C-alpha cells in the first residue's frame, strides 16, 4: 500500500477537477414511455444548456429525438417541466426560444402546432378522440399584469392560442384524461398558496365536442396538498394527498375517497415543476410507486386490492419521474456511489438497467466520500436532519491533530430537500480535504407535513438555526474545525447563507449562488408563481413589512463580519441580479473581503459548462485566500475586493 502524503486539509490534490465535472456531465430530467421506447430529457452544458429529448428504442438504439436547432424546455411558472409528450412515436414539445408547441415525426422536421409567441404551454396530454392536446397555458400577451393561467384545448392540425377549457383561478396543473376520454381531472390553487400548502382536485365530464360540464371539487383545500392525479386502466381516479400529515396514495371509488396504504412516508413531493411522478399502473391491481422515508427514496409494488406494499430492491436512494408499463418501469435514480441516471426496471426479473448516466466520468472509490445520515439537536427541543460527507482522498491525510474545514450546504426551495445521489460537485470538495454537511433543515420535504411547516413564518430563522446547529454538532464531535466553518447555498439556500453570515457569528466564510439578500425587494419583483410564497414563509405583505426588513440581510450589513463570494446569472427572472449586486456593494463598502462573479446568458441556475467550471474554481480559490492554504494545482484567480486590507480572516 502506497504511503499517504501528509498535507493540510483543503490542499489535497484531487482527480475530481472542474474540467472533469463539466466535460462528462449532463443534467437528466423527465422520463416517458411510448410502446417499447423510452425517452428522457438531457440538459447538456456543452451545448449551452440545451434540453434534448433522447429516445432509446426497444432494441437499444439511442438517438436525439429532436433536431439540434431545438431546445425542449417550457418556462411556465419559470421552472417548467412537462415540456414534451410522445404518442405513437410522434413527439410534441415546447421549444424554449419561442415557447411554441411543435410536433415532430421521424423523417420530417418539427412543425409548429401553436402560433403565438406570447403564450407558454406545459403538461400537455393528447386527446386522440378529438384530435387535440389539453395543456396548461400561461398567457403573457398583455404587459403590466400577471400572466393568466388556464387549461386549454389545442387543435393538433394547428391552433393560434388554443381555446380555454378551465379558467378563473391563479394556477392549474396536471390535466389528466380518463382512458375512455369521458372525464378530465386537474389540480388548481390560488394565491397565496403554493401547491404543497394546499390545492384542489377537480373532475369534469367531457362532452363529445370537447367542452367540460358538471365540474366537481373532489379533494384538497387550502390546507390539504394534492399531488399527481392519475386514472387507472379501468378509469378509477387515483391521487396523492397529505391529509394525514404525510403524502399518501388514495383513490376515488364510487363517490368515496379510499386510502390505499397509510404510512408515515411521503409518496409525493413539492410540485416545483410539471408532470412530476412518483407512481404508475402496471395493471389495474398493481401500482409501482416510490416513497421517501427519512430522506431516502425506495421503489415498491402496491397491491390496490389488499393494500400490501412490497419494496423492490434497487441500489437507488433517490427516485424521480416514475413511468410504468405492464412489463417495466423507467425512472430517474441515484445513489451515494452512482450519479443521477435514467434507469429501467424489468418487473419480471426485478433487474435494473442504466439507460443513461448524468456523468460518464468514472472515479476511483478511494476518492469518494460516502454520506452518513445524521439527526442532531436544534432549537425548541427538536431535532433536524442532514447528510455528512467526511473528507476522503486515498492519497492524502492531514497533519496530526488538524480538523477539517466544513462546508455547510443549505438547499434551495426552501420547500425541497437534498439527497444522497453521487454529486461530483460535492466530491470536488471532500476529495480536497473539506467536510460537507448537506442539511435538510426544518421546512424540508421527505419528513412529513409537520416538519415541512416548521418554516412557516420562520424563513431565515429555522433554516439558519438548523444549519448553525448542524455545524456545531460536528465541531463538538471533533469532525470539523470551528474556526473554518463555511456555508454555501443557491437561490433560497443562498438566502439562508446570507442570513447565517449576517445574523449569526458562527461561519467564517460563505458562498451565495443567486441568493436573496432583500426579501422585501423579492416580494416586489418576483414572477407570478412565487409572488406570494413569502406569505407563508414570512407573513402577509405589506402588513408585515417591518418583519420583511428585519429578515433581510441587506439591511444589516453592519453585522456581516466575514468574507463572502457571490455568483449570479444576469438573466435570472426568479432572483433578479440586483439582489447579489446590492450585497456585493454593501460588503465592499464595509471593507470585507468580497467577490462577485456575474454570468451573461445564465438564468436561475447555471447551465453552461464554462460557467459551472468557473464558479467551482472561483469558490475554491476564494477559500484558499481566505483561510490561507496552498492549492494543489493553480486555478484562474478571482478579484477579491478588500483582501489585502483585511488579511487572513480565520
Keyword list:
eight-stranded mixed β-sheet; disordered C terminus; alpha+beta; four-stranded antiparallel β-sheet; 15% helix; 11 helices; globular; 650 residues
Strand arrangement across the biggest beta sheet: 30-31-34-33-35-36-37-38
Number of helices: 11
Alpha carbon gyration radius = 25 Å
Secondary-structure class: alpha+beta
Mean pLDDT: 95
Proportion of helical residues: 10-25%
Percent strand equals: 25-35%
Give a short account of the largest sheet. 8 strands, mixed
Q: How many beta strands in the DSSP annotation?
A: 38
Terminal CA distance reads: 36 Å
The outline comes out as globular
Uncertain stretches: 645-650
Query: How is the quaternary structure best described?
Result: single chain
Question: Could you provide a short overview of the structure?
Answer:
It is built from eleven helices and 38 strands. With 650 residues, it is α+β, with helices and mostly antiparallel strands.
